Amino acid sequence: MREKHIKWLLQITILLLALLSVYVFLKLYSVWAPFLVMFKAVIIPFLISAFITYLLHPVVERLHRKGLPRSISILIIYFLFFGLIGYGIYRGVPVLITQLRDLSENFPQFTMIYNQWMDSIHDHTDTWPVGIHDRIDLMFSKTEEWLAVTIEKAINSLKGIFDYMLLLAIIPFLVFYMLKDYEQIKKAAWYLTPRRWRSGSIQFLKDIDHSLGNYIRGQLFVCLIIGTLAFLTLWIFHVKYPLILGLLIGTTNIIPYFGPVIGAVPALIIAATMSTKTVIIVIVLIASLQFIEGNILGPLIVGKSLHMHPIVIMLALLAGGEIGGVIGLMLAVPVIVILKVMIVHLALLRRQH
């Protein structure tokens, strides 16, 4: 009994010391802040490059299996990927800055229409319970604040893009060498991993890649197609800010269930300032894109790679939205998939021991 008390006391002491260490560490922010800046300057390009390499490597392997030399496969995919991105930045950024500046100047007009919609929703939901009503008001007010801040940040980021040219220039080189030495990197990771964790870690990463890899690649490709179709359609029908709305519709499409609604609201608000005909065009466009995505692109490209019930996905989205807003919604599905794989592996480890 005494040994048990000593053990508990030791654990509490270790916990208190750990909390004290964290407190002291945070208080010394001014000391380690410069190292954090340096670390971010190194790790951010590396993580971006690693993610791009992860996306492109299966395509390189597929070309290689069809008979192309690996080096030629890498060069083809490499130049296609970065060539298209470079051309898109070259042609798109000036147009995007112009549209964002115009959107910022006309923002009060859009806000007025938005507020009218909110008043209408408020009137129609006035009989609902107070808690639900307050929750809806809070959600829309947060969305409005986020939209205003996002537009301002986007303009400032695009204006300062040349400050990050060195950072952006490093990424293609890192991706090239990561693709070229992919097998060597895997071997290095194998030898750096402790022996007792090797088999479990490899299986864990394989399961994550199997559950999440195809979903991420497929979903990003679907978002690219949906965003491009939205931009072209809006541009053909002379809807204002087609590039901004196309990017927004394409980006939010990565969010299951809620993404189309988030992407549709700004488009409808802008269309409402033009004409009733434009509103109808936008409604038909959004409905058509969702039909194409749900019945053609989704099943064909993404499929059912998640193997997860829709209720679990919706609960994850609600939690992600509560914790991190729109970014949380985008990251909710990948996080819940990784947690699912972790739980399965932990359960297997417990059975083995």
TrEMBL record:
User: Which compartments does it reside in?
Assistant: Membrane
Record bears the keyword Ligase:
no
Q: Which UniProt keywords apply?
A: Membrane, Transmembrane, Transmembrane helix
Task: Specify where it is mainly localized.
Answer: membrane
> Could you list the residue ranges that cross the membrane?
7-26, 32-56, 68-90, 161-179, 220-237, 243-272, 279-303, 323-349
In what way does this protein cross or attach to the membrane?
Multi-pass membrane protein
Per the record, a Pfam family? AI-2E_transport
Q: Which InterPro entries match?
A: AI-2E-like (IPR002549)
Lineage: superkingdom: Bacteria
Family per UniProt?
Answer: Belongs to the autoinducer-2 exporter (AI-2E) (TC 2.A.86) family.
Name of the protein this chain belongs to: AI-2E family transporter
Organism, by scientific name, is Metabacillus halosaccharovorans
User: The organism's lineage?
Assistant: Bacteria, Bacillati, Bacillota, Bacilli, Bacillales
